[in-house]
Specification:
It is built from 20 helices and 2 strands. The protein is mainly alpha-helical and 366 residues long.
């Protein structure tokens, strides 16, 4: 357990320190060190994350019957990028952990690529990525690869470069097909959200306190109809609409009620300061996507469907938190700054001990 705590805290501290140095002097050596350390520590882990053994077994099975592997993946087990990479590793005789090295590299490379858009705010974005979503990224690996690609497509929405945005969406699709949900948002997500701050806060608290009502309606009325339709079309993903996610179940067991209170407080602060953040840092798109995510976050309960689709929206929260903390520090609102840092370090530490298969943290060969 001592190794587990050390690894997680080391990742948090070293990634923040290196991203801070990189944002200050823009020297590529800090970028290379950060990416290398992340890939080494995350790529060479063993059985950390809910789906680790499934990925490993799929990789090993692919060695036995290459043709059967391609047929199975054509049906949708893994998307194109992963299927091609697994086949590439097999052709070179590389061991299974190169798949996890590849996943870690894609995630951290595209995250650091976003630093060009965020500038001095980037170290704070890294802090909240590690404390909020880093552990999730080891459970929902392919989707986080897709999300990091999408994160870098936001600039093309701002610049109204549809073809470049479409190219990013195609790349994201190669990592996880659910990423296509964001494609239609290109046409309207950059429009101002014409809701007063007070109304947004009312929506936030209404959703929070009425979440069970909304979820019951979805689970008992909407989802069964969708599932019947998908089954009639022989679509294999139909089971998502009736099954609870093991990862989310573990979150509930790990004190998700307290986590919801922490989430609510931080969401309140983001929304309360949203107009200032949007006008000052030009993050209208990021905020709009985040606000959609907030609405569905509190009603997702144990639904695999809502969680997986909402990941592309709610995950923008770590971007918003990064800008919020940067603004608090800049305006010398130190009590609020300390509060944000403290509650998310607590969130992170709780995830170490009570997250879905997050500990003990072991490396290959141990």
């Amino acid at each position: 357990m001592d190794l587990t705590v050390f690894v997680y805290l080391f990742i948090l501290l070293i990634m923040f320190a290196l991203s801070y140095k990189y944002s200050k002097c823009n020297e590529q050596k800090y970028l290379l060190i950060a990416i290398s350390l992340f890939v080494l520590l995350i790529g060479c882990r063993y059985n950390v994350g809910q789906d680790y053994m499934l990925y490993m077994q799929t990789f090993l099975d692919s060695k036995n019957d290459v043709n059967e592997f391609w047929v199975r993946n054509y049906a949708g087990t893994f998307e194109l990028a992963f299927s091609i990479f697994i086949r590439f590793c097999n052709s070179l005789g590389l061991p299974y952990y190169f798949l996890f090295i590849f996943i870690a590299f894609i995630q951290i490379y595209f995250l650091f690529k976003y630093s060009k858009q965020s500038g001095a705010v980037f170290p704070f974005i890294i802090f909240f990525y590690i404390t909020c979503y880093f552990q999730d990224s080891m459970n929902v690996m392919r989707q986080f690869c897709a999300f990091m690609v999408i994160l870098n497509s936001i600039v093309f929405i701002k610049e109204k470069c549809f073809y470049k945005f479409l190219l990013c969406m195609m790349v994201a699709f190669c990592f996880h097909r659910s990423s296509l949900i964001l494609l239609p948002f290109y046409f309207f997500i950059n429009k101002p959200l014409n809701l007063r701050i007070s109304l947004q806060i009312v929506i936030l608290f209404t959703i929070f306190f009425s979440s069970n009502i909304f979820y019951s309606y979805l689970a008992n009325t909407i989802f069964p109809k969708i599932e019947v339709f998908l089954l009639s079309q022989n679509i294999g993903d139909a089971y998502y609409f009736s099954n609870a996610d093991v990862f989310l179940t573990e979150k509930v067991k790990g004190g998700f009620g307290i986590a919801s209170i922490i989430a609510l407080l931080s969401d309140f602060l983001i929304i309360l300061n949203s107009n200032k953040l949007k006008s000052k840092y030009k993050i209208n798109i990021e905020y709009n996507l985040y606000f959609i995510g907030v609405i569905f976050f509190y009603i997702q309960n144990l639904s695999v469907t809502i969680y997986r689709l909402n990941l592309y929206f709610i995950t923008f929260k770590f971007i918003m938190l990064g800008y919020l903390l940067f603004e608090f520090i800049k305006c010398k609102k130190y009590p609020l700054s300390v509060f944000l840092v403290a509650i998310y370090i607590a969130w992170y530490v709780n995830g170490i001990f009570r997250g879905a298969n997050m500990s003990p943290y072991t490396f290959i060969g141990e």
